[in-house]
Amino acid sequence: MQILSAEQIREWDAYTIAHEPVASVDLMERAAEACAEWIEKKGWLHFDYSVYCGKGNNGGDGLAIARMLSQRGCKITVHILEFGHKGTDDFQVNLERLHECNVPIVFIQDNGFHPTPKGNIIIDALFGSGLNRPLEGIVADLVDFMNNSGNKIVSIDIPSGLFTDKSSKGNTVVKAAHTLSFQVYKTAFVMAENGQYTGQIEILDIGLHKDYLEQHKGAFFQMTDETFIRSIYKKRTSFSHKGNFGHALLMAGSYGKMGAAVMAAKACLRSGVGLLTVHLPKCGVDIMQTSTHEAMVSIDKDEHCIISIPDDISKYNVIGVGPGIGLENETKSLLPAILQLKKPLVIDADALNIIAENKALLQQLPAQTILTPHPKEFDRLFGESPNDFVRMEKAQHAASKHNCVIVLKGHNTFMAAPGAKGFFNNTGNPGMATGGSGDVLTGIITGLLAQKYSALNAAILGVYLHGLSADMALQFNSFETLLPSDIIKYLYRGFKSIITEKKE
Ligand SMILES: NC(=O)C1=CN([C@@H]2O[C@H](COP(=O)(O)OP(=O)(O)OC[C@H]3O[C@@H](n4cnc5c(N)ncnc54)[C@H](O)[C@@H]3O)[C@@H](O)[C@H]2O)[C@@H](O)CC1
Ligand SMILES: Nc1ncnc2c1ncn2[C@@H]1O[C@H](COP(=O)(O)OP(=O)(O)O)[C@@H](O)[C@H]1O
Ligand SMILES: [K+]
Question: Which residues participate in K(+) binding (predicted)?
């Protein structure tokens, strides 16, 4: 699924109006009908509704939804923000239509807001993608009033006060339980800082013209959904042998952090790598050999941390470095040498922190290196960002500048690569917020890279499978009990769901 900006959505609406063709007010009718149907399917027709409308097209949606719910037998009160100016054409048409339904309308002109009866559902149709400045004055007071009412709020298209394409940090924004949005995701929905506002997001199909997306391919962020993932997954043939799937080298672990190496190794093996060697300090050998029988080990000369590169590096086709390596000076000194090997590379955790301390190393990354920072590691590498939008733009910029793939981890992990607009992931859950989940991801991506996925596809597929397997593990876990090892255990379910032919 694509993720569009407010401007792109406006263009797409206009394209549909011109090319379907369909009248703008009929498109609004479709949008409202989709919302009313969603409410009906939810079994919510026995509730009463307070519908809050601005006078733009978002408000127009609200009026049409009010009419449709009233026709379905719901008791409705409509509240319209009234500052004396006329509404948009489609708003005015819907106001006239609503008058015919005898729905009571309250005009809001000051702070004397009517209390919302307990149990009413609030429909928030104050502002949509046309928001052009933060809410203030009476409007901000109204939104505070709605948020504090204790009523469930359903926002239409986007919670009012939330900007589609830039940060709304510190602004007054509706806190919705559900957001009913049209056709595609909006950029605001994938930013962690907005998670508190959108609630559960439902994307409703309003039949916008498919040709628009075709004609502007490459201009949109992409949500890596199942269809997209299936298109990049490489099926194995019956005659495959281990030589087809690469020999990965993982450089991981230090005294007290050997678990990171074990988890990365197991995840790498469970992702289909042909052969795996783990380069470890001496203290980790027994741990690895007894816990992970399929992995070979290469033993560093140091007892506690890795300070050297294994012999005969030519046999490895990829390297994953970072999980649990620590920040000892000798390990730090090793990193430039690893970069100089010019192998396909995945860099995570302390290896990222070492680069952050010596940013000149960024210039030495082999082409198409994959970096997997969480936001703090990212900020150490590329400087602090005031909000998630700026951090994402920095990731795009850094990926182009250093010719690398950046996996900026989070709830909707963002992947940036040169020449691509960017990809957001939509699998995963808060059960993954336990130390070690990142090590598992490094193992998975390293395993896929060894199997000759391109760097970008290894990142996209790895992040998707990582989250999906964690989602599958929830069948027998709560968020609290889910462990990174469970992600590895359920990787087979993740893979199977991609491989299994979909029943239509
Ligand atoms: N044909 C279409 O274009 C469709 C549009 N739809 C709806 O239309 C919405 C966009 O409508 P509009 O472009 O009319 O925009 P909005 O309804 O979001 O509101 C824009 C109006 O609010 C004012 N405004 C913006 N920020 C303000 C602020 N902080 N305080 C006070 N006033 C402010 C603007 O000056 C403008 O008058 C979408 O979100 C969606 O709900 C849907 O009906 C689907 C079809
Ligand atoms: N709420 C969440 N939703 C989806 N994915 C999550 C969530 N919390 C954590 N994750 C994922 O778990 C991983 C955590 O990685 P990281 O922060 O490096 O942890 P660690 O270094 O402790 O292993 C990332 O891939 C991240 O995307
Ligand atoms: K809204």
Answer: 58, 124, 160
